Target: Fe2OG dioxygenase domain-containing protein
Amino acid sequence: MTSSSPDPSEYQPELEEIKPRICDILSKITGPSTFACGETISEYPNPGLILNEHGGIGLPLSEHDAEAIISKARQSPFGKGAETLVDTTVRRSWQLEPSQFQIRNPQWNSTVNKILGQVYTNLGLSGGAQNVSAQLYKLLLYEEGAFFKPHKDSEKTPGMFGTLVICLSSAHEGGDLVLTHNKETMTMSLASEFSMSSAAWYSDVLHEVKPVTSGYRLVLTYNLVRQNWSPEEMSLVYGRHKDQLVTALRQYETCLKARRFQYDCPDYLIHPLGHQYTQVSLRADQLKGADLGQTQCLQKAAGELGFALYLANMERTVVRDDGENMARRDNYGYGSRWNADDDDYDEYGEEISNETDFRFVARLDNGTRVDDDESLLGRVHVDADAMLDREAYECNVPDDKERSGFTGNEGCTATYWYRDTVLVIVPPAKRVPSLFECDVKGREIRSWVKRLQIDADSDVSKMQELADLCKAVLDGRPGRGRDLKDPFQIALMQQTALAALQVENVALFDRAMKDVTTPLPEEAYRRFGCLMARTSDTDAVETRVVSALKATRYLNMKYQSLLKVEQHFRDTVSGDVVPDQRVRFSYFSEKTLEEMADQAITSGTMRKVDGASLANIAGRWDLVNFAGRFLPGLLAQGVACKAAFANRLFKLLDSAKDEYGDIDTSLVSDGQQMCKAIYMRVWFAFELESQTTVAQLRSDRHKMSNSERMKAYDETLLNGDELADLLNNTFNLKAAREDQARSQLISSIKSVTDSATYVHTLLPFIKAILEQKVEMYRLDSDGQLSPQSVQMVTSSLESYITRFVGKEPKAPSDWSQLTRGCRSRCSDCAAVNRFLQSPTQKVGRFPMCKSRRQHLHNCFNNVSDVQYTIETLRNTEPNIWQITKHNKQYNNYESWKRRHDDATKRVKALQEAGPLRSYLGDMAEAVLSCDAARIAEARTHSGPFTEHAAVVTPSRLPLQNASPNSQPASVSRGSKRSANDDLVAKGEKRARPASPPDSSVQTPGKLVDIIDLTDD
Model:
């Protein structure tokens, strides 16, 4: 019985049939370009070469002028990795920098532009000739015997894609230019006594200059650069190829879905490009020739199917047993590529290892790196089966090699490196796992989620795609089920949670936040508000809002987050929404505020900004109720928190009076009595809080950055205007006498132990005094300074300078240190020792391979009593061994200088606020120059400022920490209780009842009925 032929429409080819088909399609997209071009310039002007300090250089070049050039030139170096070397066995020629000569003929630029136009056409460039320029790089002279072995040009400037040489008229023989690319070789003879020739090629083309056998070869070299360039769209001719690619990629996707085992079908495909590209030029608009056409065609096909394309630099490393080749001459390749018939190219011996890795993976559109550049692994392993043509790839000629030599009992090995730039073709279902494999931190995936969120905000049809992406991220994240510690992974999960709220999928939100213990970003609460206005499952959203707020430690952050929810609920809710929904939300909001305030008061970790937020919450309550419930706990908080609460509430009451005019006087009286009670407690035991307080109130213990530290100070310490408001409000309410408050303030300044209090509180307070913002330190009616204000300004500034700037230490002499290293004739150790002996050098950088870095590490780091640090910089190839000197004397001096310069800048800035010199008097120059020595000397003769000690006796005793119903100890029985005690007592009697959501919600307190203070 014979089997019938399969229906062609149902036939599904195997992977090994699909890959050659894709290769065949792409090979037909060849592009119009070649890798190099050249021509003879029959009509040309004399460039008018002028050699500095010599004069004109005639053409054809004479021996006399050639010798003049050599006398001013230096040997041409070459690049090996990150090093720049001079080795006449590799390169032998002379070079002049553009600063050493001039091209005087104004017609020369026109000639170069004409040559550039031919290069643009012959290399098949696109994007507009006006965007291609030739930048003069060097003048090279090759004398008899000069040459340059095979090499590739480095990209010396952004946008560089190739090299242009113009061989000037000079009699010589030899010096042929040989260019090789993709096993194709082109030879150009540019020698001519009476004409000029040009040649141009792409940067990654292997080329050499053969030895000059007689005469002199004189060459101007230019860097070819593209700027403001975008590639032209692929020709319609490629439309048929695009359709074929769509069919082939769809078959690959089907094959991938049908696989039983992972090794049956790779998660992505790899297509090697014809040219090699550096990390800087690894982007679509820098691709050359056929690479550009093939990539554009693949982009069109991938776009139809949802495939993703990435560019990557890939490296294959093969290690072989090389014992049989030790007798043969080794080739010092310097990164060059060997011809297959070169005697120095051998790939004999048993293969020991063969590994292929991505070294750099980038987005196609803008070159943004997507692999994990900070990973300990440093590279991503590549599945060799993903190569579209694995057999051809493994037959490539190596780009570099190294022989180890015999080491003890180990045999000799040879290592071969094969480097290519490739296109990585990723199907939709494997895009997220592939990105996680490249970047376990998920930065590119997070960027992808954010981009799709923006699209979905303006295009509802993108919502399902966003939901699918969220699910793929949660399914593919490494380390699922564990608490997250890595900040990048936390950021990714939070971004996914935001996207889940956007698509209104609470289950996905829960999955994203399951392993995250850090607070949600602000955007989450905006999404919560929108969702609460649209969802029918209000309970589920409310529960998650409360849970998210509990993960936030500080009241200020909780309050601002809840305001976001309220704002976006109101903005989203429709006009015809049922009243019950508004009532329910209002009840939820007020109940949540109450719980937040309770938690904050109980925690005992309220900062200044938390006190201000609590005042905003008080503005939404009946103040008597609020006082009864929260005032005792508030009085137990720190000075800055209490002051911020009272200052804010005082301002809210003033704003209400200004806005409404006929506001209930009892309401104002209740608020002022509460403020007065708080101000009395503040001055009963006043202290200026410091950076120690900041540390005690922090929610974590990680080392803060400078910006985080400044933010923490702003949120915790009183600033100058707030201290001024505290004093002004205190005296307006008669909560303390001026002499008492002044004495407490001076005493507190004496106990300041850190510069943060001066910088964030006292110096801004001095500024407020100079601006006449502090009532008790203002000029008198005759415009005269009071002794108290002079004392406050002068003593504060002198104390700041003497305590936290200090006297100038002795300046250091030099940076030289003792030498170390091995005793052998080691050039690396010698170079480091020359750096150590230098009296001026502070940082030494030495690019080298791992074995050489390890040797230096053993010689210079594993020793005692060193005054330097060593680190490896891994952002270049080869890595850089860096050594940084330390000098205790210098460090002390530099630390003082930084403090002095900062203090001088701050103190002098105070002059803009008012007549600072008038306050300082004879001490003005010493203070303004922050000269601690002069200040100390002056005070030795004149003595310090004095102030009369005073015991603070408040005009009304502060509330005690005991029950608000108890009387202060100094109040006798039968006497009248203070109004403050009455306020607290009334609060307990008028406690606020809770209301269930289904009953009518009573508006709490008369203050809310009159004004809304929460947006002030």
Notes: The domain at 827-886 is CATH 3.30.1370 (Ribosomal Protein S8; Chain: A, domain 1). Confidence is low (pLDDT under 50) at residues 1-8, 329-345, 374-378, 947-1016. The CA atoms of residues 677 and 832 lie 69 Å apart. The longest helix spans residues 579-603.
